[in-house]
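hey so u asked for the seq, here:
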Amino acid sequence: MPSIYKIVPADLWRKAQADGVFRGSEVDLRDGFIHFSTAAQAVETAAKHFAGQRDLQLLHVDTARLGGGLKWEPSRGGALFPHLYGDLALAAVTKVDPLPLGCGGAHKFPALID
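ran it, C-alpha cells below
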C-alpha cells in the first residue's frame, strides 16, 4: 500500500472527522488542491511550513484509495509532489499520528513508508 502524508492542525482534523470528509486547509483551498508529501518530503515540509507549530497530526493516506484526483506535479525545485484535486475521503486515511515538537524544535516523526 503506497502511502503519502498530510500534516494538519489537530482542530482541523477534528472538524474533518465531524464533517465526514477533509476538504483541505486554508492553503489547500486557496491553491485548488490538497497538498501531500512523500515519506522523503514530509520532514522538510514540516520544517518549512509548520515550524514551531504544536498540536499537529500526521495523516497516513493510502494512494490506492484516492482515485483519479491524485496528480504528481513538480514543485518550484522540480521535485514531484502529490496533489489531490478534490476532497480527501476519510476512508483513505489509514493511520493518524501526533506530530509533537522535539526538544530541538523539530517535529518528531514516526517511521514513514513510501
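The chain is about 25% helix and 30% strand. The domain at 3-98 is CATH 3.20.170.20 (ADP-ribosylation fold).
lmk if thats what u needed
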